Amino acid sequence: MTTPRRSLIVIDAQQEYFDDGLLPIQYPNRDDSVAVIQSAIKEARDAGVPVVLVQHELPAEAPVFASGSPTWQNHPGVAAHEGEATKRISKQFSSIFAGTDLESWLREQGIDTITLAGYMTNNCVIASAAAAEPLGFAVEVLSDATGAIDLANEAGAAPARQVHETLMALLHSNWAAVTDAGTWATALRTGEPLAKSDLVTSAAQGRGA
């Protein structure tokens, strides 16, 4: 099997998703998940894997992710790695590819596999994984290095744990190899690809569950 040429992409590990922001992550525990993100950055650096830090950035008058605001800043544990990042990106849409130069940069670097960590499972992670499919990039998602929020609106409601676990199963069924950061770190050291499921297999197993 061909050894993946990976890049770890940390999406929006910003203060907006923590205690002072309007979108605090509810599941998994946000302090635990950001600690896993920090460990994944270290693993990537030790393995020579490029690390991309992404920040969502909106105009200064925006209610969230306002440019230059305290909640626009990366979480301190991630900000400590800003100087070590191979690349930093500002984005305005859910997908890390929309309106950025990430695709061209990945191709220039010979990257064929992106590993996604960061926030939120229910927005930028799933949007980025779906956007990678037509571009031909393989996707990995670190289930313990991302997180979701409780959701309720006119269409229904779902607690963060249900949102996160459902989307992990959905991603693994088609768009991404979903795993925990420890398993991913082992794959980094061995150079092995991570397997995902597929819709037919997931559907069959779902009927049998």
How is this structure best described in words?
Helix 1 packs parallel to helix 6 and helix 4 runs parallel beside helix 5 (160-172). The protein has 209 residues and is α/β, with parallel strands linked by helices. It is built from seven helices and eight strands. It has a single domain (6-208), classed as 3-Layer(aba) Sandwich (Rossmann fold), CATH 3.40.50. The radius of gyration is 16 Å and the shape is globular. The mean pLDDT is 97. Helices cover 36% and strands 21% of the residues. Helix 2 (76-79) links the parallel strand 2 (51-56) and strand 3. Pfam families: Isochorismatase.
Key features?
six-stranded parallel sheet, 209 residues, alpha/beta, 8 strands, Rossmann fold, two-stranded antiparallel sheet, 36% helix
